[in-house]
Amino acid sequence: MSNLEFGIYIRSELRRKGLQQRDLAKAIGCTDAYLSQVLNGERDGFGLKKKIRDYLFEISMTDEVKE
After folding, report:
1. Among 18, 19, 21, 54, which one is least packed by beta carbons within 10 Å?
2. In the predicted model, is pLDDT for residue 1 greater than 60?
């Protein structure tokens, strides 16, 4: 998956979960501007991508428990 494809996927997941990009940035401990650069494919953000995946996975698990 390219950096740009990753960003598109993450944005669609955020919309699906009713979150905004700034919510994600705050939750993973980075600035909204840096997160935007990673999601737009302008920066690699390898370590940040792992935090994003972990956070979204955690939310998904919480959603499944509620159902």
Report:
1. 18
2. yes
Are residues 55 and 24 in contact, defined by beta-carbon separation less than 8 angstroms? yes
- Number of residues that make up the chain: 67
DSSP state of 41: T
Counting Cα atoms < 13 Å in the Cβ hemisphere of 11 gives 13
Between CA 30 and CA 65 the distance in angstroms is 28
In contact, 14 and 47? CB cutoff 8 Å = no
Which of 46, 45, 49 lies closest to 37, judged by CA?
A: 45
- Angle subtended at Cα 52 by Cα 19 and Cα 15, rounded to the nearest 5 degrees: 25
Largest CA distance in the chain: 37
- What tokens does 26 get? 């705050």
